[in-house]
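Problem: given the chain below (170 residues), write out its structure.
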Amino acid sequence: MRSDTLSIKCPKCGGCADFLEPFKFTNGIRADDLPENFKRWGRLIVEELFPDHFAWVDPEISKPRFLQSTDDDGPGYRLNHRGMLDCKKCDSFEKVAIDWPLDAYWRWNIKGFELLARNREHALEILSYLRERPRPPLRTPGLKHIPTPLLQEKHAVEVSAQMAQDLMAA
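Solution.
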């Protein structure tokens, strides 16, 4: 499971803040004795990264299931929803609930198509790909959600320019 830090808009200053998931999930098929801030959920070991703010409570499902979008329904653990905000600009470090991708910092709407990056590194990966000529036919998973019309040369130039401007300003 991808565990990149997400970049979100800080609600206090509007700057680029990190959103940190409160739990880390690892395969724990062979782990028996667990330290205090570690829990078992099915075959996974759940580490409480911020135990003073978030305590793990098993979802009402025995087999781990991760809900990745707001469209996902039912029991399981919802990713990119509750966690810690870490803003270097205003020195905020606090518990937050976010609405991903609406709270994303790296987000563009060009020609009615939305382009989203998880963080600065992901935005740079997208920008590099858009500028590449000729583009490789196979894209990495982080690039597969670029709207097809934005890959056309006439739009890619505009997208690249806007992205480069925003990346330089941040």
